[in-house]
Amino acid sequence: MNTRAGRLTADMLVALATDYIRNLREEAIKGLYGRLKQGLYPFYAPIGYINTGGGQIKSIDKIRAPLIRKAFELYASGKYNLESLTETMRKLGLRKLPRKFYSFNRNGSDSS
Question: What is the pTM of this model?
Fold first, then answer.
């Protein structure tokens, strides 16, 4: 790095690494869109669905799916804000794990 040749070599390595990263990103995105076009959701199953293994269609969670539908119906009624909806869904038994509850909030994620 102290000589002109050393700096030139480092610059060339940076350019190659940048190209590799850019290409890797493009190929990953292409793969995700390919899975979506095949009708497969390439991410972790959303609430109300169950992961059935790599490359498989997600299956409906027979316990949580009706509760998720109920949550959407209640919220769409306009009678519930996110806090009251969270409390109502807890009372109805919507859980992540046996001892953890979902908490609906404005940023789209849930916390326990």
Answer: 0.60
